[in-house]
Design a protein that fits this description.
Number of strands: 0
Structural class: mainly alpha
CATH class of the largest domain: Mainly Alpha
Radius of gyration: 27 Å
Largest sheet: none
Strand content: under 5%
CATH superfamily of the largest domain: lambda repressor-like DNA-binding domains
Distance between the termini: 49 Å
C-alpha cells in the first residue's frame, strides 16, 4: 500500500512530468503539487484523484476483506479476570513448562 505522497510522486515521475507541468495540467499551482508530494501529506481523495488523472493515471480504491485472526477470546477474558499476581504466576508456570519442553527436545535431538 502506498501513501498518497509517494503514489503521486511515482506516478508523476512515470509520466515524465515535472511538478510545474503536472500543476499546469491539473489547473493548480506548483506549490500544491509540492505539498501533496511531501512525506506524510494527506490530500483529500478528490484532490489526489484529480492530480493522478492529470498525470495519466486514475485512483483505484479497494477495501480488501479483513481477516479475522483465530483468537480464543474466552482465554483472553479468563486471563483478564485474574489478578496481576495470578497472571504472573500463570506466566511463570507456562515459561517453566516451555523451558522443560525445550530441554527435553534438545536432549532427544542429541540422542
Amino acid at each position: 500500500m502506498h501513501e498518497a505522497a509517494s503514489l503521486l510522486r511515482e506516478t508523476r515521475a512515470r509520466a515524465g512530468l515535472t511538478q510545474a507541468e503536472l500543476a499546469e495540467r491539473a489547473g493548480v499551482s506548483q506549490p500544491v503539487i509540492s505539498r501533496a508530494e511531501a512525506p506524510g501529506a494527506n490530500p483529500r481523495i478528490a484532490t489526489l484523484d484529480r492530480l493522478l488523472r492529470a498525470a495519466g493515471a486514475r485512483l483505484d480504491l479497494a477495501a480488501p476483506e479483513a481477516r479475522i485472526p483465530d483468537v480464543d477470546e474466552g482465554q483472553i477474558l479468563e486471563r483478564l479476570r485474574l489478578s496481576p499476581a495470578q497472571r504472573l504466576a500463570s506466566f511463570t508456570a507456562s515459561h517453566q513448562n516451555l523451558t522443560d519442553m525445550l530441554r527435553l527436545a534438545r536432549r532427544l535431538d542429541a540422542a
